[in-house]
Design a protein that fits this description.
The complex is a heterodimer. Chain A is mostly helical. Chain A is 69% helix and 4% strand. Chain A starts with a helix and ends in a 16-residue tail after the last helix. By secondary structure, chain B is an all-alpha fold. Chain B has one domain (2-328): Up-down Bundle (Formate dehydrogenase/DMSO reductase fold), CATH 1.20.1630.10. A two-stranded antiparallel sheet of chain B has the order 1-2. The N and C termini of chain B lie far apart (55 Å). The chains are: A mainly alpha, B mainly alpha.
């Protein structure tokens, strides 16, 4: 067994790179939809509850429209998620073959939770017309818990890959004496799970609020935009400082449980005390760091609250057992970008809190809405970054210190994998592009209808040159004539 | 314990074949519905019938994969290594099918609907073929632990026939269900439209099965023997009875029970295959016991499955009941207050 490990460590199979790229590409695409799969039902239900409780037609319209978007988004999320299940076998059969029965149970929980979610969401999305209002609402209430349960399964599996336990190796190196409870509740599970769940809620909140922030920047100050902004933004803003603390404790858990990964994300070369913190910068093969801002002592202080804390360096393990300099730099940048964005979001949340504390109202400043419009996109970036940090920082292991990525990879020829990557990229670009186009088109239709009814209510003469003017006629002939103000662009494009 | 999990796997595959199969079949008829004007009404029905349930139906497949890798990791590894290409293509097909279907509905332009519809319909044909071909390859003993990917594993007589049978079975299920759906949505003309297609699909299944008998005799000897004797044969006969009952019900225009008998016939065939393959998960090289994962995990898998049945079962029943009672309807433009835009032609 040891000789095989040594052999495999030295040889990188040709198919490793395309397999990795394919996994990275499909997972990076899928993860953009995950926040909405996990958290959009919750936010929609908040709005729905408000609509029913206060008999508020504006809130009801918002909830219905969000659920119309959810219908499409959930479908795309399901199929891109199914692809990932296939890829476990298509790309990493070695991992599933040896470890499937140790850590696969988390996926079992996930599959059933997801089943429940798919059933309930179908009832919710298609129940608007015929079900009684409150029955309809209550049937959807189990949705957020089901989503949390699904996330539980996935994160259990991922955290097991980071801190594998719950088994013993026999003489042939095969896992025996599997203890499922230990394998599910691994040391990294808690920190990873809460960090993930809160990230999903925050991201969905900021993205949804961002859409209405853009609307406000374009001069739409009606109650519809105000409500559509306030509810999701409040959820996200409350969670932002919580997430900062959760992220901090997750990083410290990595420091204790996966010291080499921590060394990679913080660019620590040699094990030492009084380790400085580098903001960005690039690790060279010889251990020097180019660029970046160096803050003396800070890394030790962050890891153990005092400068004398000893931080394990990358060189504490042989070069074959740790991320390469490039991988460490990638993980480090991903980590720093995530932390930077998280810190800026706290300022935004504080601005919002201050405004509510002092004025009992949303901030009126245009810059606030510009930042809010960007917050959603920034959050999606942090989701990608967090995932890159945990995955790239674990290299070269697929199961930390037990199996290398190169041992798990399929034996399918590299050429087939590259071809498949090409096909998948074309398909995904088409699917995600169409998805975005469809959602934007829905938004345009809704805006035209709203402007039409607003104009009708105001009884403006047709020649009035206002934003809600002549072009807002709901008739198909006039309504489509290229609305001014560049309103056919993406929501993020405004700021 | 391993034996039990193996049966859970067979049941999950049967559930996917029936639930997912109905949706694939709907896609198949979407493909054959003709031009935009001619196929407008069948496509309208397919859209409405499938929309609330296809996502839940699709999850059976994920469950099948999870049981495979948790319960029988070596088998999972062997199958995905040997059947690389058909499974990869099936995955791409799944994406195109789901995306095509989900994106076609909110689209209001004919040209775009055509593209999405084509993606949906073509991949509804391709995906079950490849999944069927994989099953055929396994049944004919072409997958062993350590088999590397090759065309022979899935491009052989047995695999191709199984793939075609899978398509025919989905088309049959789809048409039978669409008959009842047409009745439910108040479209009597479509009832006859799909009734004819269900009968044709059944004819094709019979023809394919008759061709398969001699072709697979030597190629998949173990499973062939299992299907023509003992429990396997019994279930096959029951499946045939259910299939014929479906035909009779369709001929007598009784669409209430025809759905149940058609589902039973497909599920029984899958069950028969399960009996025929005993005690192997990969005939004739890997038995259920050899492939089974850690005992402790299997015990937990049973617990998780039982909890899940308690949780998901009622929800699923509720979904199907609400659906067949016509309580589930999609939001219209009026509900979300959406306007038309230029270029809309639907």
């Amino acid at each position: 067994m040891l000789s095989t490990v040594g052999f495999l460590a030295n040889s990188t199979p040709d198919q490793l790179l395309p397999a990795r790229e394919l996994m990275a590409f499909t997972l990076a695409s899928h993860i953009l939809l995950v926040p909405f799969g996990v958290a959009l039902p919750f936010i929609t239900l908040l709005m729905h509850h408000r609509a029913l409780r206060r008999n508020d037609p504006v809130a009801l319209t918002l909830a219905r429209r969000w659920s119309a978007v959810m219908a499409v988004q959930f479908a795309i999320g399901i199929i891109t998620g199914t692809v990932l299940s296939f890829e476990f076998g298509l790309l990493w059969p070695g991992m599933m073959g040896r470890w499937g029965d140790v850590f696969g149970l988390g996926f079992g929980v996930e599959a059933w939770a997801f089943f429940l979610e798919a059933v309930l969401i179908a009832i919710y999305l298609y129940g608007w017309r015929r079900l009684k209002p409150w029955t309809h609402f209550w049937l959807a209430v189990p949705l957020p818990p089901a989503a949390l349960m699904g996330a539980f399964g996935i994160i259990a599996a991922n955290s097991w890959m980071n801190t594998p336990q719950g088994f013993r190796l026999d003489a042939q190196g095969n896992p025996v004496d599997v203890d499922v409870r230990q394998a599910v509740f691994t040391p990294m599970f808690g920190p990873e799970y809460w960090h993930f769940v809160v990230a999903m809620l925050m991201t969905a909140g900021y993205v949804v609020a961002g859409v209405y922030a853009v609307g406000r920047l374009r001069g739409r100050r009606d109650r519809y935009h105000r409500l559509g902004f306030t509810v999701p933004f409040t959820v996200a803003a409350i969670l932002t400082p919580i997430q900062f603390m959760l992220g901090d404790s997750a990083a410290r858990a990595v420091f204790h449980k996966q010291p080499v990964k921590f060394a990679a994300t913080e660019l620590v070369w040699k094990t030492d005390t009084h380790v400085p913190e580098y903001l960005f910068g690039r690790l060279n093969g010889d251990g020097t760091i180019s660029g970046g801002i160096k803050i003396p002592q800070l890394d030790s202080i962050l890891a153990g609250f005092k400068p004398s804390t000893q931080v394990t360096g990358l060189t504490s393990v042989p070069a074959a057992d740790r991320p390469t300099a490039v991988q460490a730099t990638i993980a480090h940048w991903a980590f720093d970008i995530m932390v930077t964005i998280g810190s800026v979001l706290i300022l935004l949340a504080l601005w919002y809190a201050w405004s509510w504390w002092r004025h009992r109202d949303n901030p009126g400043n245009r810059w606030f809405y510009r930042c809010a419009a960007l917050a959603g996109v920034a959050c999606l970036v942090t989701v990608e970054c967090g995932w890159i940090t945990t995955e790239v920082g674990r290299q070269p292991w697929i199961v930390y210190q037990h199996m290398r990525v190169s041992e798990a990879v399929t034996s399918t020829r590299a050429g087939s994998l590259w071809a498949m990557l090409g096909i998948v990229m074309v398909v995904y670009v088409a699917v995600f592009g169409s998805f975005l186009a469809v959602v934007l088109k829905m938004r345009t239709r809704w805006r035209i209808a709203d402007e039409g009814s607003a104009a009708a209510r105001a009884e403006l003469p047709p020649e009035t040159d206002t934003p809600y003017g002549p072009r807002s006629e709901p008739e198909p002939t006039t309504a489509g004539t290229a609305p001014g103000g560049g309103s056919d662009h993406t929501p993020g494009g405004a700021s | 314990m391993a034996e039990f999990i193996a049966w859970v796997l067979v049941i999950a595959i049967a559930a996917y074949a029936c639930a997912g199969g109905t949706d694939y079949g709907a896609g198949f008829w979407d493909l054959l519905a003709g031009g935009a004007e001619h196929g407008k009404r069948p496509r309208w029905l397919i859209d409405h019938a499938m929309a609330p349930v296809w996502e839940a139906n699709n999850v059976w497949l994920i469950f099948v994969l999870v049981i495979m890798w948790t319960g029988f990791p070596t088998m999972f590894q062997a199958v995905f290594s040997a059947m690389w290409l058909p499974l990869a293509l099936a995955a791409v097909g799944l994406v195109l099918r789901g995306a095509g279907f989900a994106l076609r509905k909110p689209t209001r332009r004919l040209a775009q609907q055509r593209i999405y519809g084509a993606a949906f319909a073509v991949s509804s044909l391709v995906t079950p073929f490849f999944l069927g071909a994989v099953l055929g390859g396994i049944a004919s003993g072409r997958v062993e632990v350590g088999t590397t990917a090759s065309a022979d594993a899935w491009a052989n007589g047995t695999s191709v026939l199984t793939g075609l049978l899978a398509i025919a079975a989905t088309a049959f299920l789809g048409a039978v269900f669409l008959c009842s759906d047409a009745l439910r949505f108040g479209a009597p003309d479509l009832v006859d439209y799909f009734r004819l297609r269900a009968l044709c699909a059944f004819g094709v299944i019979v023809v394919l099965a008759l061709i398969a008998l001699p072709v697979t005799h030597h190629d998949a000897r173990y499973v062939w023997d299992g299907l023509t004797g003992g429990m396997g044969l019994l279930l096959i006969i029951l499946a045939a009875v259910c299939g014929l009952a479906t035909v009779l019900l369709l001929l007598r225009r009784s669409y209430g029970w025809s759905r149940h008998t058609s589902v039973a016939s497909v599920a029984l065939v899958v069950g028969a295959w399960g009996f025929a393959q005993r005690p192997y998960v990969l005939p004739t090289s890997l038995t259920v016991t050899e492939a089974a994962g850690a005992t402790h995990t299997l015990r937990w898998l049973v617990i998780v499955t039982v909890i899940a049945i308690v949780l998901v079962g009622p929800a699923l029943v509720l979904l199907y009941r609400l659906d067949t009672m016509g309580e589930l309807e999609e939001l219209t433009d009026a509900d979300t207050r959406a306007a038309r835009t230029s270029g809309d032609n639907l």
